[in-house]
Every structure is written in C-alpha cells, then in structure tokens.
Amino acid sequence: MSAVKEGNFDGIREQVRGIMKQPGYDDGSAGPVFVRLAWHASGNFSLVEHTGGSNGAGMRFPPESVDPANAGLHHAISFLLPIQAANPWLTHSDLWTLAGITAIEAMGGPKIPWEPGRTDYSTAEAAADHRGDISSRLPDGALGADHIREVFGRMGFSDREIVALSGAHALGRCHEDRSGYEGQWVVNPIRFSNQYFKLLLRDIWKPREWDGPFQYEATVAGTKLMMLPTDMALVQDSEFKVWVEKYAADQDLFFKDFAMAFGKLIELGVERDDTGFAQLVKKSAREGKP
Ligand code: CCH
After folding, report:
1. Domains identified in the chain and CATH numbers
2. Is the CB of 175 inside a 6 Å radius of any atom of ligand 1?
3. Which atom of ligand 1 is nearest to the CA of 261?
4. Residues taking part in catalysis
C-alpha cells in the first residue's frame, strides 16, 4: 500500500475500493462488514448522555472491543489496517466511517455525505475516561419494535429514519460464530438495493427449525434467506410498515432517505471546532454541561 498525500480523501476512497474485493472471505467482498463497522462505531451514541459515536474509534479498546455485539468486526478493522499504516495522518475513526460509505457507493448504493476531522483515543485509558461503559447500547436482534424505537430514539432517529437505515440488511450476512444467527437477507448480498423491503412484504417467512436462536427463513430463487425478529418487527408494527411499503415501491426514495440517515449516523457525537477537528471531551466535563 502506498501513501497518499495528507488530506487526499479521494485517494483513500480509492484504496478502500482496492481492498474491498476479498476472495475467500464471505461473498468475496469486505464491503458489508465495512458498513457494519461504520454503523457499530457510531450507533452507541446517546443524545442525553452525549457519549458514544464514531469519534475516537473506541472499538480498538475494551469494553467495545470485547462487546459481543461487535463480534467479527475485527475482520473489517484488520482489512483496513494497511491503509491506516500507509497513511499515518489518517485517523481510524475517519477511515472506518469513510470505508462504510465508500463500500455502500461501490456496491451500487447512494453517495453519502461525509466530513473528515474525527480524532482517535490514544490509549484504552483515554477511551474509558471519555466514554465510560457504553457497551450494550446496540440493538438486540431477538427483540421487537419497542426495543428498536428505544435504541434508535436514543440516537435521535425517527421511524422513517429507522426503517431507511434497516435497509442496510440488503448487504452481507449473519455468521453463527459472530451473532449466533445464520444466513443472508437477500439473494445478492453485495449489491445495495431495496430488495430487503420487497422481501419483507412477501408472505414467505417461516420460523426456522434449528438449534440456533429464533429467526425466520424462506427460499427465494433457490437461495436460502433469513430475517431476524427485529427485521420482521418492521412489518409487524403498522407505523414502521408504512415506510417499508414506500421503500419497497420506490428505490429512489429509499436511496435518498438512506443517504441522509446514514450521513447523520456517522456524524453523531462528532463536534468539530473551528480547526475542523473534533475534540475528545472528557465524560466528566460533559456531565458538567447544562
Ligand atoms: Fe445489522 N446485523 N442490525 N444493521 N448489519 C447484522 C449484520 C449486519 C441488527 C443485527 C444484526 C443495522 C441494524 C440492525 C448491517 C448493517 C446494519 C447481524 C449479523 C446482526 C445480528 C452479524 C454477524 O453475525 O456477522 C439489528 C438487531 C439491527 C436493528 O435493530 C443498521 C442500522 C445497519 C446499517 C445502517 C450489515 C451491513 C450487516 C452485515 C455484516 C456482514 O459482515 O456481512
């Protein structure tokens, strides 16, 4: 990996696209796990406590690195390490979020707004000092609509944004050795589309009979597909379902809403000062704020 000039983020995007193809890994692409990395790096933000979010790249240290919700994300982090090593001016937190949006675009999805300026924690102690224990803030796939609204509400997302973001499950798969669940949501899991919503609306889903956690299954075009209980909650809840129907019928609307919501997700908790860099404000100092 060669170095690109400091501040040349288009050059970094090109390097991300260059390492996305990973023969022998999952469906041959690191794209889906990059998207999950950007989401989990950001999705532990709390509007009320003002902790969490993508700034800091806290997933390199405990408790986030050992949070069972993040199992498997070390693959994404390791795929990206050569880019960070070749470009020491680039923070992990900027790289993780940039890799997520670059992957979405490269897999046929919308262009998502992205700004640099995130700062990394330098040590585990610094991460703990700034964040406290913010594990267990990510959603649990075994639960229902109330849980989804609680988790995403804590980040400041509306029903419309929640459903749009959930459309990312058009990408990638569940791995038994990571989450306990198994299988992909759509027939082509490395193509960003509104297929997830179209499939959710079909009357094909049956509980899977197996020893693993409760999940749904169906076979479409000869391919075994799956849904989590939280996925099915989007059609079981009448207010969520309105948006599932809209996005199933109108891919452009889905792409537009997804781009806005994902752009908002990766900015949560990133407060830049006039130098353009985000500050790592200590948790204690934050708590002193009105
Ligand atoms: Fe997700 N997701 N996700 N998800 N997710 C999993 C995999 C991916 C939930 C649970 C799981 C979002 C919302 C939710 C991706 C993006 C997003 C897995 C399997 C579980 C379980 C992990 C494994 O075994 O590898 C739950 C619950 C929710 C909400 O209630 C949101 C929001 C996004 C992004 C916007 C992507 C991409 C994957 C595939 C990762 C891969 O490695 O292929």
Report:
1. 9-138+263-287 (1.10.520.10), 145-261 (1.10.420.10)
2. yes
3. 35
4. 40, 185
